[in-house]
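ARCHIVE RECORD
Type: protein–small molecule complex
Small molecule: iron/sulfur cluster
Source of inputs: curated submission
Record status: active
Notes field left blank by submitter.
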Amino acid sequence: MNQITPQGGTDALYERVRHLVPAMEWETFLADIRAIETLKRERNAVILAHNYQTPEIFHCVADIRGDSLALAREAQETDADVIVMAGVHFMAETAKMLNPHGTVLIPDRKAGCSLADSITGADVRALRARHPGVPVVTYVNTSAEVKAESDICCTSGNAKRVVESLGTDSVIMIPDEFLARNIGAETGIRMITWPGHCEVHERFTPEEIDRMRADNPGLVVLAHPECPPEVVAASDFSGSTAMMADFVRGHASDPILLVTECSMSDNLAIQYPRTAFVRPCNMCPHMKRITLSNIRHALETMTHEVTLDPELASRGRRAVERMLAI
Ligand code: 13P
Ligand code: SF4
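STRUCTURE (tokenized, with ligand):
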């Protein structure tokens, strides 16, 4: 997670992104970037941006950048009046759970997630009934209703630690089947899974990685743990988006393949211009619903505000706070 304080006006901002954003495209962003900076000051607002946001959002208007875990922590700690979530809906709901008195805005309500859509609170109750006494670990990529039925949440950045902290032989780990199988392989803990998949990461294959290795000698392959286990097994490292960014920092002289969403490589290429990134690039259509213009609109109109049923929010918060305490 990094703080950005734009200095030197929009020219300095353009210097950050110029090798990925053509000058003509930059011209189309300028009015929104200037308006957003003014609105942030007027509203006492912060923009939290996930690592999959496009460079003009991530590098030019975001105040806080990071993976799901970092964004949740920052949402809890910020004293801003307004949080704009440049990410997807479950991230905005988590921010609202952790910052119940703040106003949380999501620029497009339809910015969803195939994992969050794969499971309901009733599904979790049915799983518990089938496996009495087995703790339920829920990935943060879920609705507030599903979190409310869970014992503890996890993100890809802390899943191993969360699962191990429970001290049980078996865990119900939902809804990402691949994350559960990857963490099961790392920990030896028996995973009861749910057939939810990330529509971006499920498309990568080990054959694709083998081809890229053959074409790029010395390639270091980093895969997100939402990828199928065969893809993680074919990689050199697996971790959350922030863990991948940390890894790149330590290996900035190697050619790197990021087996994850497209904008992650774009954003890191801006930070590490001398690193050669190989990009198989699958795009998350939900993350891409967030744009400079709808961020500006969100701040101008104070829409779309994320609200939660208080009882549901309080039960979901328990599961998220239990995770943050680890
Ligand atoms: P991270 O927590 O690793 O940023 O992952 C969130 C996500 O949605 C990945 O697809
Ligand atoms: Fe959901 Fe996958 Fe998009 Fe992440 S990349 S928000 S897990 S669909």
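CURATOR ANNOTATION: DSSP finds 15 helices and 13 strands in the chain.
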